[in-house]
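User: Run a structure prediction on this.
Assistant: Running it now.
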Amino acid sequence: MSTTIANFVARCNDIVLAQPEYDLGSYSRKKCDCIGMIKYGLYQNGVKLETTGTNWTFRHQVTNIRKITSASVLQVGDVVFKARTPSDSGYNLPAKYRKDGIAYNGDLNDYCHIGVVKSVKPLRIIHMTSPSAKTDTSIGKWKYAAELLSKYISDYGGLHVPDEPAEQDYVQTTENETAIVYAPSGQWVKIRQKPSTGCAVWDNVPIGAKVTIVTRGYDWTKINYGRRKGWYMMTKYLTFG
């Protein structure tokens, strides 16, 4: 059972109106934390969000992830994240997401805070923080936006996805050509539905994996990897021959 964007946002806004006390692990109108607002917004619509925190939600419970460059990439009902890299002050990624941890997937960012886009024009991002719920009217430190999976919210319309590059942007591909995934960082590499960093991340491919080339491009290459057929990876992360 899922709910709608309107119902989800309305129930999250109940937290803003109630101004509960910030309390880690709670999700009620009396006490709540940041992921608690998301859980409350769904739970009040009969939808259960099983999560151990914002890092879990970012890695397992959202789709159509994109960097927030401006309000134009946002839509009502998006969940938005603040994030810290390993070199940032306050970085505190739980051990299970780090290398050799049970939930490690190559992403070492610490997605430390979550909110909800209540409106885009004017911009209103609601979130639960200490000492209580708050509404932001600018992008500020929000880094990523995403949609909750359809099993939670059913009616996302999706954003415009850029067209594929023109045919002349590609180079010759031999039949059954393969490549090995490589990244200097040692982290897993993202594949996407379209050749754009603004498009959803559909999977993470481990370093050393072999992929089959569909169309080889200068910036993006269309690949087959397991059940993922015709997805895109940045060419710089592929070693050919």
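The first helix runs from residue 5 to 18.
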